[in-house]
Design goal:
about 500 residues, single chain, five-stranded antiparallel β-sheet
Length: about 500
């Protein structure tokens, strides 16, 4: 069954049906667009939500060390990725369905317009042919009536006794002419009728069926393409379901990573002070007339108790507290355990920076060597500013490292001393003595090496601003006290008696 055969006379219904199909495609496009807007709005709200609850700042970063805090951050990250998948769904629906169907709809509209125009043109041609047939038919009828009238008039004239022979002959000729004209009109009418019937047969059995069948094919293609669009509506989301599932699994996994015991241990490590619990307060018998002793436990009991009491209420910051000096660089304002952790962390950071600087220095030296062997590749002198800057940075980091290592040794030694005495001011005295001993030992290391092992000449001027380094000037003769051990530094002695470290690349070894 097809439209051309069974619906040959249903032009108006075919027109309405195909227009209804195009309207459905347009409605579906609008539907998908609104769906994409919902997806985009949902994704935007999810991103805003994750941004709102994401941790920021040093305090939040410290909290993220706890597994329950870190897991919540992972959940926010997974939810942010989930929002990205919703955006991807919206984007793919817009490009894969809306944009493609819109282009296809425009093509269908143009094709339908062409088919309807062809049908109207064929109809107009048939109607024009029919009008011409009617005109020929009317002319034939008129001429035949005139011919019969002329024939009757000729017979009447011939039977009239008063009519002359000339009148009779004239009437016969007129009747004959009319009859001949009527015969010609009859032939024209017959020819036109045959032509119209042929055109009508072509119109109803060939031309219109072909046009309607083309419109049927167009409508079926529209339906098939719309069905594909319906399937795409589901397939686009199915394609991202594995990733969405991974996001959801990641959220579940984040919950499974939480270790409450480990969080408690971490909390203890972060805030353990290392102080000994305060000793008993001695009884002072005023009945014996003894003047109260000025012991450490009675000097400032409210302050000590306020610090050690575990359930102290929060108090407003006083004017004196607002103007307290800033935190000490050696973290001496912290409890022993926390001070050791902070010092060790600082040492680790400086060690990493020192390794990076050393690697950079080695790379520059290698590059300089390559340039010296292959001048066409570059000018060795162009690297000197970078080499100087890197060497100074290494010297500064070495000084920083030695400083923090000294403080760490002081903290460790101070803790050992504090374990043998009560929690009082003697701790600071012992720590100070140990610090002094450490600096004495550090100086003794230089005193052990008294004989130079060689001579060298300074190639460049070096400003020794960091601890453990000394300044030298270009062309200065120096005594080598300790060779470069592979770290790019050597210890030298100046003529003035000043001793310290300088970059090995800044000097030329003597014979």
């Amino acid at each position: 069954m097809d439209w051309g055969t069974d619906l040959w006379d249903q032009y108006d219904h075919i027109d309405k049906h195909t227009q209804s199909g195009l309207d459905l495609v347009e409605r579906y496009i609008k539907f998908v667009k609104e769906r994409t807007e919902i997806e985009q709005g949902y994704a935007k709200q999810l991103r805003s939500l994750t941004k709102k609850y994401a941790k920021r700042g040093s305090k939040e970063e410290q909290d993220c060390k706890f597994s329950n805090h870190a897991s919540f951050q992972e959940i926010l990250n997974e939810l942010n990725d989930y929002a990205g998948q919703r955006e991807l769904i919206a984007e793919n629906m817009m490009t894969g369905i809306c944009v493609e169907l819109t282009k296809y709809l425009q093509d269908l509209k143009q094709e339908r317009k062409t088919h309807l125009s062809d049908a109207k043109k064929a109809q107009q041609n048939l109607e024009s042919s029919f009008k011409h047939l009617e005109s020929t038919k009317k002319r034939f009828a008129k001429e035949w009536a005139e011919a019969e009238k002329a024939t009757q008039q000729a017979e009447k004239t011939e039977n009239d006794l008063n009519a002359t022979r000339l009148d009779v002959e004239k009437a016969k000729q007129h009747a004959h002419a009319r009859t001949h004209t009527a015969e010609e009109c009859r032939n024209d009418y017959a020819a036109q009728l045959q032509k119209y019937n042929k055109e009508q047969n072509f119109f109803y059995y060939s031309e219109i069926p072909q046009i309607f069948n083309k419109m049927q094919d167009m409508d079926e293609r529209r339906i098939r393409r719309l069905a594909e669009g319906y399937c795409q509506f589901s397939d686009i989301e199915k394609k991202v379901l594995p990733i969405i599932s991974k996001c959801l699994e990641g959220i579940s996994s984040a919950g499974g990573k939480i270790d409450e015991k480990q969080d408690s241990i971490l909390f203890i490590e972060q805030h353990k002070s290392g102080f000994e619990r305060p000793g008993d307060v001695e009884f002072e018998d005023y009945t014996q007339g003894i003047k109260p002793a000025t012991s450490d436990s009675s000097l400032n009991p409210p302050k000590v108790r306020a610090k050690l009491w575990p359930f102290s209420k929060k108090h407003k910051i006083s004017h004196a507290e607002k103007h307290m000096p800033p935190a000490a660089e050696d973290f001496s304002h912290l409890p022993p355990e926390q001070r050791k952790k902070r010092l060790q962390g600082k040492i680790d950071d400086i060690t990493k920076d020192l390794q990076k600087a050393q690697d950079q220095s080695d790379a520059l030296e290698k590059m300089k060597g390559v340039y010296e062997q292959n001048p066409q590749m570059g000018d060795p002198s162009s690297l000197e500013p970078q080499i100087t800057e890197t060497a100074q940075n290494i010297g500064r980091l070495r000084g920083e490292l030695a400083k923090y290592e000294t403080w760490l040794s002081e903290a460790v030694g101070g803790e050992e001393s504090s374990n043998t005495i009560n929690n009082n001011t003697q701790h600071g005295v012992v720590a100070a003595d140990q610090t002094q001993n450490l600096y004495t030992e550090f100086e003794d290391e230089f005193d052990d090496i008294e004989t130079p092992i060689g001579q060298c000449t300074a190639l460049y001027t070096f400003e020794g601003n960091s601890e453990g380094t000394i300044s030298i000037t270009e062309g200065e003769l120096l005594s080598i006290m300790e060779e470069d051990k592979g770290d790019g530094w050597m210890r030298v002695l100046r003529a003035s008696g000043e001793e310290g470290y300088i970059p090995s690349s800044y000097v030329k070894l003597g014979l």
